[in-house]
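Researcher: Quick sanity check before group meeting.
Model: Go ahead. Protein one:
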Amino acid sequence: MAVNPESFDDPVLDFDFSKSGDTGALIDQMSKAGGFTATKLSKARDILSNMRQQLNDAEYDSSKVLNWLSFPACLCATGTRGFFVEAIKQQMFNVVSTTCGTLDHDIARSFEKYYHGEFELDDKELAEHGLMRLGNVVVPDASYGQIIEAVVMPVLEEIREDRMAETGKTGADLWHGFGSAHLVWELGKRIGTPDSLIHWAAEHKIPVVIPGITDGSIGAQLFMFRQKYRDFHIDTLADEQILSDLTWDVETSNALMVGGGISKHHVIWWNQYREGLDSAVYLTTAPEHDGSLSGARPREAISWGKLRQDAPNVCVEGDASVLLPILGADLFS
């Protein structure tokens, strides 16, 4: 980055907490206080606010503005799930890319509870008591695998029967064009609760694409369902068709990407076909030096044509379970 000494004319100001009565005002002060992540969080808020306004102005028309949201499943095991639920409920994003565990936790927590624990708990003892640890969240087996199987398997039967009645098809043809996005809508209509992500995705017909649909408890249920109905399958290329149709000719495409992995890559991969995203916000705890996608900064996406060279962008380093609630308190108020 070139240096222009005359450009340094914006002084660092201390926080004035007598003027930070709401989250928005506090984030405004972060832009002036400077210092590392605070400045980046303020920039992220501004980019996200602009993304939302663009979609509002387009009257939620996905052929004009496409706002992507990608994130890993682990956050849905925490209260941060509330950010994603509210974001979809308010239609701030109109396409989602995530992992199978998001379905697992979203469904499980709609029926059972997860509990506070500690990172330092004895994992051998937890296992002996039928308790599983996800970071400092404790998940009883009854609140995860058992409830998912009890709830999902009967619904898969319903979906099969209804598709046969509606389409008149049988065998493998019955599932042609039925991708993970369609599965999410069907589950959302049938078992989604108002505090769940899948409920609002179905309500607003927002595609939630899960490229790694078999990598989780829901994936295990799908596999077991196939043991009964050998023609059953999830048409993953139907998901790719959805993303292709959304991306190819859209006028403006923006994204909030939390973490990395397959969810993030699906967003930037499809946007290379339109010469890159128009704006992007990354949230990550990953370092850049190991070459991982999670740690890759926006400038690397520019080199691949996945982010436009003039696109507003920022990478905020930090724990999303802290950063997203702060952003949400301003964006959703």
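Researcher: Fine. The other one?
Model: Protein two, sequence then structure:
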Amino acid sequence: MASSPLPFLRGLRPTLHIAHRGGAAVAPENTLAAFRQAVERYRTDMLELDVHLTRDGELVVAHDATLERCTDGTGPLAALTLAELQRLDAGFHFTPDEGRTFPFRGPPESSARCAR
């Protein structure tokens, strides 16, 4: 016999699946690779992201105001132009296995490059 839901749960909508920073546990955070995996693999309902302004006035997706934690660059993100940011490797530090491999390090055409 199926039990009825608790009274305080009746009428609630299903919980949204939100990928924080685009799914930072499955790919470098705030990259197209992370956003794609969140949507295609996990069917996420919502992507959470942050934006910053570059030196030349372009909006870019990044969590940090500085570059060290997520890229092979250094210094404040706002000090660089969009073209300079696009040369950075946004997958440089990402590792799914505690530093044994770095599958998103790669050439400029890599999906983990900083993107506009």
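Researcher: One line on it for the slide.
Model: The longest strand covers residues 18-20.
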